[in-house]
Specification:
Strand order of the largest sheet: 2-3-1-4
Radius of gyration: 19 Å
Largest sheet: 4 strands, antiparallel
Number of strands: 4
Helix content: 25-40%
Distance between the termini: 10 Å
Oligomer: single chain
């Protein structure tokens, strides 16, 4: 339920689950203490980022270069998230920029990083749903 609406009050959650507010609050506190809930974030509506270009950049990394590539990608502010994946590529980066020309600059910068063998980009046309 918190994934759907992290701003939901403990009273709202308790009503939906049929539990007491103190039970819900203690469970949330325990999940936070255990690190299951690592934090809360803001998801913006797709219309808010209407003028921005988003893309998944698939990255193949040379052997033994992964830590340096991950560190370098963390320093690129347009890289919103980075995932290690199985298959033909090693990483997938979510990149968000103001326009296509900026995407070109960022993808070129990623491809030029020491340890990056190749990249493949897929521009996101729309988001059907997000949780």
């Amino acid at each position: 339920m918190l994934r759907e609406d992290a701003r939901a009050s403990t009273a709202q959650i308790a009503r939906r689950l049929g539990l007491s507010r103190t039970t819900v609050q203690s469970r949330i506190d325990r999940l936070e203490q255990q690190g299951v809930i690592a934090g809360y974030t803001v998801r913006t509506h797709e219309d808010y980022e209407h003028g921005q270009v988003r893309a998944h950049v698939l990255i193949t990394v040379l052997p033994k270069k992964m830590p340096a590539v991950v560190k370098a990608l963390r320093d690129i502010p347009e890289v919103r998230s980075l995932h290690s994946v199985s298959g033909n590529h090693d990483l997938i980066a979510m990149v968000v920029v103001g326009g296509v020309s900026e995407m070109d600059v960022v993808t070129d910068a990623i491809g030029a990083l020491d340890g990056v063998e190749r990249t493949t980009s897929a521009i996101i046309l729309s988001t059907k749903f997000e949780r």
